[in-house]
Every structure is written in structure tokens, then in C-alpha cells.
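Materials and Methods. Structural model of Glutathione peroxidase. The 182-residue sequence of Glutathione peroxidase from Salisediminibacterium beveridgei was retrieved and submitted for structure prediction as follows.
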Amino acid sequence: MSNLYGFDILQNNGVIRSMADFQGKVILIVNTASKCGLTPQFEELEKLFQTYQENDFVILGFPCNQFEQQEPGTGSEAEALCRKDYGVTFPMMDKIRVNDPKPHPLYAFLKEAQPFQGFDASNITGRMLKQMVKDKYPHLVTGNDIKWNFTKFLVDREGHVVRRFEPETPANEMEEAITELL
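The predicted structure was written out as C-alpha cells:
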């Protein structure tokens, strides 16, 4: 598959939605967790969404419980918390698996399209994440798997995955790449 429009995703209300519904939009796909040290990124992401949504930009949040059980509830509970505590208005989908043993096909596609390039060693959060993954998830050190919550994939208007941003990347460092596609 050359773009992500052939994938289906599940909304929190149980309705299956096609990624083709987002055709023509610039998309930022994020695996999220409401009980993570990086959870405050929701505020930055919401600001990006509010700034650019009128230019056909959308963020899709996918709650995930694969890292230290930092998303223990249902997808609906995660969405409610994000809306209440962080003012999130961008679409939040149902919980998803991003890594083995059975990653969602969308995430298998994303990881293949934009491999892991390493954590930012100049960023203290990047250095901490690198050490934490090494200590707690040594099987994730190599390869293209998602290493932690808030890994972000930027998709152009044709559905091609053009960039991968690791968890430590703040929204302001992604903004230029986003605006180039709008």
C-alpha cells in the first residue's frame, strides 16, 4: 500500500472509520497516554490543531496502553480525560496496539514508512527516554517499533507518511514541517 487511505480505524463509539475520510488533509497521528510524563503535550498538540485546522490539518490521537500501562481505561475514558484536563478537541480514536505481538495494521504501515531515527541526544527528555527504553524494554532498542507514548507521524495530503517525530519532540519543533505541507 502506498498511502494510508486503505486502513480502517475504530472510534471510541465503536464505529469503524476509513482513513480515506481524511483524504486531502495534512494529518498528525499520535499514540497517546493520559498518565504519562509527556501527557502535557496534549496542550501543545491542541494549540497546533486550533491554529491550523482551518487549513485542512487534523490530529488523530490513538490511546495506547503498551508502555507502563499509562492508559489503563477504555478509549472513551481516555478521550474524556483529555477533553476535560487538556481541552483536547481533535479526534481521539479507540485504544490501539502500536507494537507486537499484534500491532494495528495502520501502525505497522507507519513504522515501515518512517523508521526510527533515534532519540535526540541534545534533549534531556530524549536521553531519559533512550535509557528508560534500554532498561525496561530492551527488545525495542533496535528496530522501528514505537519506543514510547507520543510518537508522532506526519502525513501529507496524498496520504504519504513524510516524517516521524519521536516522543521528546515538542509541537513547536514540528510546526515548520506541518506548515510546509499546508
